[in-house]
Write a structure and sequence with these properties.
The chain is α+β, with helices and mostly antiparallel strands. Helix content is 42%, strand content 19%. 30% of the residues are buried. Keywords: Elongation factor, Protein biosynthesis.
Length: 262
């Protein structure tokens, strides 16, 4: 057991707990070890979290992570007058942790980070691209576009390991995709605005004009329509984009009709 004559500053103790959400004992230890230097205490906690997180991650690595959330992030591209949308799947062990604010916050930031991956991941002619998980794990963790904080943290991998240490469950980043062409929008079910259990992305492309020719009102209308389509995709899980692509059996099963309705 470590003894010290340094007493933790009460105001700093409260501040550090509010900012980091660490336990009282860990906050006290950080301030004692750094002689009540707030910046050094934060650095000490960060290093300690990585060490304890790595140990915990090693222990839980073989445990199945079958729960989790789908999370999206979207940003408008002014030059193209379109939108970039990403969706990632972050898994944990229990449904309880999948609803945890810390876990969902991590998922939102990973989705935001994946927005930056499209330049090196895209293939010509493919609107929806898979993102390399290895590359994403090594990227600096970015704040979500809708978040107030602008802090750029550790890498995605380091942040996952740190969260494992705090939550105590195995966490894995399973997959990630990005849509960087057209007017795209997403819909998530079974959660909040940014997280859900089931998700879909729809991409709309105007036929007669380019995206650059659309005014702000038309672009917003298409974005709203794309979200409505994404919601239908989540609700009905369609197999085909066009009715004529479906077999007769599928048409009967899905209730499709080749006729057009006004």
């Amino acid at each position: 057991r470590c003894y010290s004559t340094v007493k933790p500053d009460i105001k700093l103790l409260k501040q550090i707990r509010q900012e980091t959400e660490v336990s009282m004992s860990k906050a006290k230890e950080a301030l004692i070890q750094t002689n009540n230097n707030y910046a050094e205490a934060l650095a000490w906690l960060s290093k300690d979290a990585q060490i304890s997180g790595a140990k915990k991650a090693q222990k839980v690595a073989d445990r199945a992570a079958a729960e989790g959330v789908l999370t999206t992030a979207s940003v408008q591209v002014p030059v193209q007058n379109g939108y970039k949308t990403t969706m990632i799947e972050l898994n944990c062990e229990t449904d309880f942790v999948s609803k945890n604010d810390m876990f969902r916050g991590l998922a939102s930031r990973i989705a935001a980070t994946s927005l930056l991956m499209h330049e090196t991941q895209r293939s010509a002619g493919r609107p929806i691209e898979s993102i390399s998980i290895d590359s994403l794990l090594q990227s600096p963790l970015m704040p979500h576009p809708e978040a107030e904080s602008s802090e750029i943290g550790k890498t995605v991998q380091e942040s996952i390991v740190e969260t494992i240490g705090k939550i105590g469950e195995n966490i894995t980043l399973r997959r990630a995709v990005i849509v960087a062409d057209g007017i795209s929008a997403s819909y998530l079910h079974g959660g909040d605005a940014q997280n859900g259990k089931i998700g879909g992305i729809a991409v709309l492309q105007p036929k007669k004009v380019s995206l650059a020719e659309l005014d702000e009102k038309a672009s917003a209308a298409l974005s709203k329509a794309a979200r409505q389509v994404a919601r239908q995709v989540v609700g009905f899980s369609p197999k085909y984009l066009n009715p004529e692509d479906a077999s007769e059996i599928d048409r009967q099963t899905e209730g499709m009709s080749p006729e057009e309705f006004d």
